[in-house]
Write a structure and sequence with these properties.
Blueprint: E1 9-11, E2 18-20, H1 39-66, H2 70-76, H3 86-99, H4 110-114, H5 119-133, H6 137-170, H7 178-205, H8 215-237, H9 242-274
């Protein structure tokens, strides 16, 4: 609070407004004083920033796991100060995922692309590229994988947008904006990044459980965990219940698979274009 006796006229460094006190009455900028430059003040600000961010991160992630759809609902209602923004949570989890990409989800190796539903389209393109660049399959796979992983970090939001599109149709009567559906899809992506990549990666690396996580087991896990999220969050975020919620959630599982394959196809073309 400004001191009552502080009547010195000041000019704001940000908006050039003239004011008295230590806070600009137009934009809120604080006057930088010598005490603000002390090392003690720096450490204090750093401690507050780190602990505040950490508490928000943990709280928001816990709510995504325990009460799916709640954080998206809160943001859609305009209640934002208690939580870390879902997009910020997403980018933090995304960074950790791409540092330790044990399980493929938002990236796809060349081998995965070659056996995808679009393999008939992909295989001739890969063959022509290998001939032109004089690569064998092993060398090209290595080069492709490096470039694809790099691009996937930047393009993963493409999947989020693709995943939000069917939500606009399935829940078109729920009076949600397009950005609300995108925010919900971001929370779904956060859930998958944490549960279906990081947690599974930890399980795969300890106790010799890695060899049990074959394609069939992973598919069952993905379907089960995503059904949990879609049903729980459908009640919270869309206020849907009963057989309609179950039907829409099951349908959404299939549509998420379609969105993932389309995203991987886009990632393939972008990778090939930049090689």
């Amino acid at each position: 609070m400004d001191a009552p006796h502080d009547t010195q006229l000041r000019t704001c460094k940000s908006c050039h407004n003239t004011f008295t006190g230590i806070y600009c009455n137009l934009c809120g900028e604080k006057v930088l004083e010598p005490s603000d430059r002390s090392f003690k003040k720096f450490l204090s600000s750093l401690l507050i920033a780190v602990t505040f961010a950490d508490s928000k991160f943990i709280k928001t992630l816990w709510l995504v796991l325990k009460k799916p759809g709640f954080v998206s609902f809160e943001f859609a209602q305009g209640r934002t100060v208690k939580y870390l923004r879902p997009i910020s949570l997403f980018f933090v989890l995304n960074l950790v995922y791409f540092l330790f990409p044990v399980i493929q989800l938002f990236n796809a190796s060349l081998n995965t692309q070659l056996i995808s539903p679009f393999s008939a389209l992909i295989r001739p393109i890969v063959a022509r590229k290998m001939v032109l660049e004089h690569f064998d399959l092993a060398s090209f796979s290595l080069v492709y994988g490096t470039k694809s992983a790099s691009l996937a970090k930047l393009m993963v939001m493409v999947f989020v947008v693709l995943a939000s599109l069917p939500l606009n149709f399935l829940y078109r009567k729920k009076n949600r904006y397009f950005t609300d559906h995108v925010g919900y899809a971001v929370e779904l992506a956060c859930f998958n990044l944490f549960i279906n990549t990081m947690v599974l990666a930890v399980i795969a690396s300890i106790g010799g459980f890695g060899h049990y996580l074959n394609e069939t087991v992973l598919t069952v896990i993905f379907i089960t965990t995503n059904l949990y999220f879609l049903i729980r969050s459908g009640i919270t975020f869309y206020h849907e219940t009963g057989w309609r919620l179950i039907l829409k959630s099951v349908l959404m599982i299939g549509l998420l698979k379609v969105a993932l394959e389309v995203y991987r196809l886009i990632l393939f073309f972008m990778t090939m274009w930049t090689l």
